[in-house]
Write a structure and sequence with these properties.
about 450 residues, mainly beta, Immunoglobulin-like, eleven-stranded mixed β-sheet, five-stranded antiparallel β-sheet, 2 helices, disordered N terminus
């Protein structure tokens, strides 16, 4: 059969065309199980130009299917549900009406039907046909249609099938064999009747309920923020509290274009000191900078808890100073669940004796893998010292005293052995002049002290 032959038939009897095509008809397509859709069959597909040229569906919130000048695929069936190209999917709202059209390159006599799997059971049922079949459309006419999404349509991502077949295919369904034509599948998103602008907290993402963690650890607390409105969600405020105490608010990090789109938002890092639960409450406000008219889905309250007994190490004593020549014992404490101790010098004991300045680190881990670490800084303080005292006779009964090489001195006191009061001071001694009232021999004493000795 040639293209010219079919063209001659186009204005006359169609029975001959079907008779010639009859020998090529295949068995009917088999309906698949849920989520696995049947493949519509064509015996001759677009051999004579019986194709879908354009598909246009005007959806909600400016969404659009506009698939123009499409080529005919081998076998006549094309699945566009995974397409990421622009204008290849729409959002549809329950109980709302939408329009569209289908065109063909063939001169006349094409039928068009369409279905959406509203209940998501993997089958295009008769009740899911969108409109009365378009009959006898051609290249000079547009197959305009409209349809209303029923209230019973389940919300979520669904499949739409648009099928074209040559006139006379009165029994064309979503799956059976037709002689000439083409079929497309598209992804659509069904949205419930919802406020135009609405946001809410969907779930507690972390700490995950199925992931145990140790007490006395910091945990990331994150929630999912969901667009629960029919408009794209571009802004929203996210508030949260911990055990009833308000925490800093956040804003939506990315836009959520479609109903039920969501994003994970990290609220903060939270310490779980024991295995007792902590109450996390999160809620949204001002979706798209507008008042939220539906508060029923704004808020989520959860009480995550550490399920593993952790370790809480506090070395005793904490940061400290010892005197030169002495030592101190650092104690990492006793802990449950048969812990082992590892110090940064390789020691495996609970305690450690030290006599030098340094940073001392210990890790304590119990037999279920929970651990904690603590760090102690020890400083060794030397005794107070001086090199010498320079004394200058001023020849007027007074003497100048200069302390040379003084170090590590907190306090000092001069005693001039002449009955006058001692002269105390703090820090390093400075130059001092003392006058003696009477001639004689005096034992002058400088007493130095710090936290370690005098």
């Amino acid at each position: 059969m040639s293209k010219n032959y079919k063209t001659l038939l186009s204005g006359g009897t169609r029975a001959l065309r079907f008779a010639l095509a009859g020998a090529l008809l295949l068995g009917a397509g088999v309906q698949a199980n849920a989520q696995t859709y049947c493949t519509p069959l064509y015996s001759s597909a677009c051999t004579y130009g019986d194709d879908i040229k354009d598909v246009i569906v005007n959806g909600a919130s400016g969404t659009l299917i506009s698939n123009l000048n499409t080529p005919c695929p081998t076998g006549g069936y094309q699945d566009y549900t995974a397409s990421t190209a622009a204008n290849m999917t729409v959002s549809l709202i329950q109980n709302s009406t939408y329009t569209g059209n289908v065109t063909t390159n063939y001169s006349c006599c094409e039928d068009v039907r369409a279905w959406i799997d509203y209940n998501n059971n993997g089958t295009f049922e008769a009740s899911e046909q969108l409109f009365t079949p378009l009959i006898n459309i051609g290249s000079s006419s547009t197959g305009a249609f409209s349809f209303t999404v029923p209230l019973t349509a389940s919300a979520g991502v669904r499949r739409m099938r648009v099928r074209l077949g040559y006139y006379g295919t009165a029994t064309m369904d979503p799956c059976n064999t037709v002689s000439y034509g083409e079929c497309h599948d598209y992804k659509v998103t069904i949205m419930p009747l919802a406020p135009p602008n609405n946001a809410g907290i969907g779930s507690l993402v972390s700490p995950a309920s199925n992931t145990p963690f140790c007490s006395n650890t910091m945990q990331e607390v994150a929630v999912s923020v969901v667009n629960l409105g029919n408009n794209a969600l571009t802004t929203a405020n996210i508030h949260w509290s911990l055990d009833g105490v308000m925490q800093p608010s956040l804003t939506l990090p990315v836009a959520l274009p479609n109903y039920k789109d969501s994003v994970t938002v990290v609220l903060g890092q939270v310490l779980f000191p024991t295995t007792a639960p902590r109450t996390v409450k999160a809620w949204t406000s001002l979706p798209n900078n507008l008042a939220d008219t539906d508060h029923s889905d704004d808020t989520l309250t959860k009480s995550p808890a550490a399920t593993l007994q952790g370790v809480d190490v506090h070395v005793s004593p904490n940061d400290t100073i010892i005197c030169d020549g002495s030592s101190i014992t650092l104690d990492a404490g006793e802990h449950p669940l048969n812990p082992f101790y590892v110090w940064n010098n390789g020691s495996l004991e609970q305690t450690r004796s030290v006599n030098q300045s340094g940073t001392y680190i210990v890790k304590v881990q119990n037999n279920i893998g929970c651990y904690d670490m603590d760090t102690v800084v020890v400083q060794v303080h030397p005794h107070p010292i001086i090199n010498s005292i320079a004394i200058i006779d001023n020849s007027d009964g007074s003497f100048t005293f200069n302390v040379i090489g003084a170090q590590h001195i907190f306090n000092y006191s001069w005693n001039f052995d002449d009955g006058t009061a001692e002269q105390p001071g703090t820090g390093t001694p400075t130059q001092l002049i003392h006058s003696f009232a009477d001639c004689g021999e005096y034992n002058v004493t400088l007493t130095l002290s710090n936290d370690c000795s005098t």
